[in-house]
């Protein structure tokens, strides 16, 4: 018994004995069920834990018998509510709820269910009671008023949304249920006594609540709380989906985002309800990292803390320090901050959301395990507190005997042992919660830069900026004064202005520590102007000092990324994404990320989502290149992979659109070829895509609209159908969305160039390459590859390409054509001069190297078929070495030169500089190697 007084233990034993005797005296059936010692021992354990279960077992002898027979493995049978037994509906529901709840008590006490199963069982019970009651009431209303029909004649049903723990599937034993009623469309019922939809569903909802909630001699079924509906108690009992949309667009508040995060359709027209919840997702989860969620959480936590202090709720395991609500708030806050970007975090169930936070590295594995253990501990204790007397309580008991009953039921020796375990769990929760909500330090003395900023625009001295480390202090001072007078700054709310006053001095200090203070400041101010109206971005920089420092570092080192961040502030999220400094996505991961955009039904939203994903992925590649975490050549290859996946998605969208308008072409095939840097997998940041379109279809084929389309769709001849498809692809890739355009497209490399058809048939493409194509077009074919479309058609293209490139050629004529074309290009495109070298077009530069390799493929692939496989420069160099056309030393040196040129060009692009570099000895040696190798193979390009 440890330290428990013997008299208290005796009192518990006596309490249990009295309970057993009450059961035996209740009926002969009870006495028969308790005829052996084993049955008595099992029932005694339940009586010690729950007066409620004792009373239910006393009233329902058949329940006691069933539990002793099979330990309640199956839920208790649901009663039938029919028109013949309407007066009995309240009793039937209440007796069912009591029986099923007692079954859950039995299984919990005997260790047959863990806490997760108990929470799921309690949730299921509430859903069953709701659905059973609603279906009975719907039938009654249909008899009296008919069913509600919308203007189109469709039948409308009530949708019951469960919020809170009911929505999350984790309802506690004696909880009320938070409900919100809605219906898809307005209309009127079609019965003898018609009602408008609003009145019909309001009455139906009120009847439902009363049937479940109203106390009778059998108690209650479920307490119903309707206060979370729009406008609370002052709002309508039921709103149409349109009314709900309007409310959340105009009136939705932060606390409602927390509430609706868990929302789930639990009864009525569940399919319609779940569909509408998808449309509410942008209200709950912002598309960007949303640190403003912490402000709402701080306000809610402060209000709860005040309530705890006022009502002396320190021993409340739900609202008190380290309680259940702190775990819920912590998890939900992290979900709201990142759920717009991480689909795995859009989870109603806390027990599932917490591992998802661990998986996305928002919570460490150790913290995740500790919080999950604390949550289950607290929820099990909460259930036992409520099981005792079916009371909606979260307070630890004052009664010594109740404390012993709870402790013994949870297998602790006494109350002190349970209390020690509880205190340890609450302390861990409090620590984690406090770290999340730790207030930003505001008590430190403001530094010189902070004082300077707050004195603007009228006060402040430029000398402060010079002393801090800005080289052009006068220019920086003028820019900051202009920014302080900017209308966007003056229009800020008090809260946002307070954030700016904390953030801007920190940004100034970070600029001073950067590699280019003055450039960093200009770029910081440009970015701030773009984000001032978006409180979430200021909140991100305010709440995350590491993001602020990282931001300034990136702005100082890359004009391109500074420009993109200012144009698309959603990329700020990437600075806090733990993946941005981790392994880069491979092709399969890029494909999955791009395909996720297809979840959007609206074409405009789909394109925007796809572009946002492209921007985010390319930003991660750029960061890796900027930080030197991968070779430049690897960066250009990943950018090409990303373009491939985007083009594939756009092709799917375009095919669907054209098929909707004109049907599909039976037996038709379509493919997209990538030329140039896309084909060679050497795509740069901001590069356009060189695309060529092919199709193949049976002679005389035309599209065939589906029977359902026959009214508006019109058939097209196959050539016109595929031309329409190619036009659609170009238009979609170039369409301007809120996240910019996907890619600029260049289609001039198609057969006959700008004069030719946009899309070529397979036969015409084969004939053109064989009979009319210029040598430079065959050079371009060296780098061409299939990007998207029909696999068989892409295979046919590969065959044409191989036959074309391997065809016999006059070596002298080939050399003349290649040299002449290179001379023309250099004359038109080389921007170098005596002091600076054009990395791409200059003598001995990238294009000279590409021309050399293309020349060798055209000259030698007939004898060396292995030269036909690679499209990329490093792959071609390696193939040349294997074929004996380059020595191992030459190949290695050329590969190094190519890598160096690509790296230097990428660095120029990242800082928005022309690809012109100062001449030096290393560069001269690299150029000389390219020129010398080309000359050794008969190519002497003009210098």
Automatic annotation (TrEMBL):
Residues 298-436, 821-896 form the PII-uridylyltransferase/Glutamine-synthetase adenylyltransferase domain. Involved in the regulation of glutamine synthetase GlnA, a key enzyme in the process to assimilate ammonia. When cellular nitrogen levels are high, the C-terminal adenylyl transferase (AT) inactivates GlnA by covalent transfer of an adenylyl group from ATP to specific tyrosine residue of GlnA, thus reducing its activity. Conversely, when nitrogen levels are low, the N-terminal adenylyl removase (AR) activates GlnA by removing the adenylyl group by phosphorolysis, increasing its activity. Its cofactor is Mg(2+). Residues 1-440 are annotated as: Adenylyl removase. Coiled coil: none annotated. Belongs to the GlnE family. GO terms for molecular function: [glutamate-ammonia-ligase] adenylyltransferase activity; [glutamine synthetase]-adenylyl-L-tyrosine phosphorylase activity; ligase activity. The gene is glnE. It catalyses: [glutamine synthetase]-O(4)-(5'-adenylyl)-L-tyrosine + phosphate = [glutamine synthetase]-L-tyrosine + ADP; [glutamine synthetase]-L-tyrosine + ATP = [glutamine synthetase]-O(4)-(5'-adenylyl)-L-tyrosine + diphosphate. This is Bifunctional glutamine synthetase adenylyltransferase/adenylyl-removing enzyme. Residues 41-273, 549-799 form the Glutamate-ammonia ligase adenylyltransferase repeated domain. Its EC number is 2.7.7.89, 2.7.7.42. It is an enzyme of class 2 (transferase). It comes from Pseudoxanthomonas putridarboris. Keywords: ATP-binding, Ligase, Magnesium, Multifunctional enzyme, Nucleotide-binding, Nucleotidyltransferase, Transferase.
């Amino acid at each position: 018994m440890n330290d428990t007084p013997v008299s208290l233990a005796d009192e518990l034993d006596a309490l249990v004995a009295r309970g057993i005797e009450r059961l035996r005296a209740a009926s002969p059936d009870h006495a028969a069920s308790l005829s052996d010692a084993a049955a008595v021992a099992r029932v005694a354990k339940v009586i010690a834990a729950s007066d409620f279960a004792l009373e239910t077992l006393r009233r329902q002898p058949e329940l006691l018998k069933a539990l002793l027979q099979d330990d309640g493995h199956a839920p208790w049978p649901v009663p039938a509510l029919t028109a013949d037994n309407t007066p009995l509906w309240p009793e039937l529901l209440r007796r069912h709820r009591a029986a099923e709840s007692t079954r859950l008590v039995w299984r919990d006490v005997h260790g047959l269910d863990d806490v997760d199963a108990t929470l799921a069982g309690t949730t299921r019970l509430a859903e069953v009671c709701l659905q059973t009651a609603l279906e009975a009431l719907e039938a009654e209303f249909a008899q009296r008023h008919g069913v509600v029909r919308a203007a189109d004649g469709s039948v409308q049903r009530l949708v019951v949304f469960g919020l809170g723990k009911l929505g999350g599937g984790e309802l506690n034993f004696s909880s009320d249920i938070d409900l919100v009623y809605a219906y898809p469309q307005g209309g009127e019922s079609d019965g003898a006594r018609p009602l408008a939809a609003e009145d019909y569903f309001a009455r139906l909802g009120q009847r439902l609540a009363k049937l479940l909630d109203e106390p009778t001699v059998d108690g209650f079924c479920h307490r119903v709380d309707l206060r979370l509906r729009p406008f609370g108690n002052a709002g309508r009992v039921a709103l149409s989906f349109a009314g709900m949309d309007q409310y959340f667009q105009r009136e939705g508040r932060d606390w409602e985002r927390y509430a609706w995060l868990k929302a789930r359709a639990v009864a009525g027209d569940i399919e319609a309800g779940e569909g509408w919840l998808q449309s509410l997702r942008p209200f709950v989860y912002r598309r960007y990292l949303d640190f403003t969620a912490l402000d709402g959480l701080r306000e809610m936590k402060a209000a709860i803390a005040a309530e705890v202090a006022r009502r002396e709720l320190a021993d409340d395991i739900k609202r008190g320090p380290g309680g259940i609500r702190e775990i819920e708030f912590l998890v939900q806050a992290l979900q709201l901050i990142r759920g717009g970007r991480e689909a795995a975090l859009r989870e109603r169930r806390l027990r599932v959301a917490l591992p998802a936070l661990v998986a996305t590295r928002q919570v460490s594995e150790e913290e995740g395990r500790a919080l999950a253990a604390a949550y289950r501990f607290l929820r099990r204790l909460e259930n036992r507190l409520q099981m005792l007397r079916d009371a909606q309580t979260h307070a630890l008991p004052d009664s010594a005997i109740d404390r012993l009953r709870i402790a013994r039921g949870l297998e602790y020796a006494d109350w002190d042992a349970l209390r020690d375990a509880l205190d340890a769990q609450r302390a861990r929760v409090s620590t984690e919660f406090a770290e999340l909500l730790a207030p930003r330090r505001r008590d430190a003395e403001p530094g010189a830069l902070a004082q300077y900023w707050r004195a603007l625009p009228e006060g402040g001295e430029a000398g402060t900026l010079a002393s801090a480390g800005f080289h052009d202090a006068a220019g920086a001072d003028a820019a900051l004064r202009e920014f302080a007078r900017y209308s966007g700054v003056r229009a800020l709310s008090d809260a946002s202005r307070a954030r700016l006053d904390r953030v801007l001095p920190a940004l100034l200090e970070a600029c001073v520590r950067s590699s280019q203070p003055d450039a960093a400041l200009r770029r910081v101010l440009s970015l701030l102007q773009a984000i001032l109206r978006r409180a979430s971005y200021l909140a991100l920089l305010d709440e995350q000092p590491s993001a602020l420092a990282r931001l300034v570092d990136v702005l100082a080192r890359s004009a391109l990324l500074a420009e993109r961040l200012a144009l698309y502030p959603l990329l700020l999220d990437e600075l806090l994404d733990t993946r941005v400094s981790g392994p880069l996505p491979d092709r399969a991961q890029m494909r999955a990320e791009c395909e996720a955009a297809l979840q959007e039904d609206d074409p405009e939203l789909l394109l925007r989502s796809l572009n946002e994903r492209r921007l985010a992925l390319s930003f991660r590649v750029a960061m890796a290149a900027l930080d030197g975490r991968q070779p430049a050549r690897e960066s250009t290859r990943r950018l090409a992979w990303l373009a491939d996946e985007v083009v594939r998605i756009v092709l799917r969208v375009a095919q669907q659109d054209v098929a909707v308008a004109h049907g599909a072409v039976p037996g038709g095939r379509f493919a997209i070829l990538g030329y140039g840097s896309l084909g060679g997998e050497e795509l740069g940041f901001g590069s356009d895509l060189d695309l060529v379109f092919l199709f193949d279809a049976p002679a005389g084929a035309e599209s065939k609209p589906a029977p359902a389309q026959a009214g508006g769709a019109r058939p097209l001849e196959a050539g016109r159908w595929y031309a329409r498809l190619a036009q659609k692809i170009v238009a979609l890739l170039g369409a301007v969305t809120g996240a910019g355009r996907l890619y600029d497209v260049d289609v001039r490399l198609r057969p006959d160039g700008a004069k030719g058809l946009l899309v070529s048939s397979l036969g015409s493409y084969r004939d053109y390459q064989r009979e009319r194509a210029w040598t430079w077009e065959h050079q371009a074919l060296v780098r061409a590859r299939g990007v998207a479309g029909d696999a068989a058609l892409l295979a046919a293209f590969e065959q044409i390409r191989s036959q074309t490139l391997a065809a016999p050629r006059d070596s002298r004529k080939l050399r003349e054509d290649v040299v002449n074309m290179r001379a023309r290009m250099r004359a038109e495109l080389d921007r170098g001069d005596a002091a600076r070298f054009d990395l791409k077009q200059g003598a001995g530069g990238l294009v000279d190297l590409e021309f050399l390799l293309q020349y060798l493929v055209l000259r030698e692939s007939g004898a060396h078929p292995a030269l036909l496989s690679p499209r990329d420069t490093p792959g071609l160099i390696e193939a040349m070495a294997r074929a004996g056309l380059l020595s191992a030393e030459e190949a290695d040196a050329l590969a190094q030169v190519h890598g160096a040129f690509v790296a230097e060009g990428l660095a120029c692009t990242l800082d928005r500089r022309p690809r012109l570099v100062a001449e030096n000895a290393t560069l001269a040696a690299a150029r000389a190697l390219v020129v010398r190798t080309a000359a050794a193979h008969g190519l002497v390009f003009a210098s």
